[in-house]
Write a structure and sequence with these properties.
- This protein is an all-alpha fold.
- The protein has six helices and no strands.
- The chain is elongated.
Length: 153
């Protein structure tokens, strides 16, 4: 029973990763392109806000993988603005933080990894279900078709 539960947790992690990674990718690319392409007055706050959003998505991914691995959540130290800093400093601080740029890189690359793993998991699940339930629908198929399917499998 524990193996079935682990299988469900792992499959749930992989399948739920695709919509999350697509959302992260869209927000990362559009936020960075808009932030860089906009005028400095508007672009830097957009870029800083994008970095805060990517920080949240990276933390969500850390919590998800911690549940799969059954380990505590590991959170990196982000650069914080000094106490009493103004709003400009709060906006610019995540832009200068290396961890924020790593979160951006993760947000862009995770879509490729997630799409590939979802395709593999769903394909293998279909093969397993189709093969293990062949006894239920195999009699419907023509004898020659059924023999060729069995010969290939």
């Amino acid at each position: 029973m524990i193996a079935i539960r682990r299988l469900g947790v792992n499959a749930g992690y992989i399948v739920s990763g695709l919509p999350l990674s697509a959302t992260t990718f869209v927000l990362a690319v559009h936020g960075v392109v808009t932030g860089i392409g906009a005028v400095v007055v508007l672009g830097l706050p957009i870029l800083g806000g994008t970095m805060y959003v990517l920080r949240w998505f990276a933390d969500l991914e850390r919590r998800r993988i911690a549940a799969v691995l059954q380990s505590p959540v590991v959170r990196p130290l982000y650069r914080r603005p000094p106490p009493g800093a103004g709003w400009v400093r709060h906006v610019l601080t995540p832009i200068g933080d290396v961890q924020g740029w790593l979160d951006l890189l993760h947000g862009v690359l995770i879509l490729v990894v997630s799409a590939g793993t979802v395709a593999i998991v769903l394909g293998l699940t279909g093969l397993v279900l189709g093969g293990s339930l062949f006894w239920a629908y195999g009699w419907v198929l023509d004898a020659t078709v059924a023999q060729s399917i069995v010969a290939v499998a």
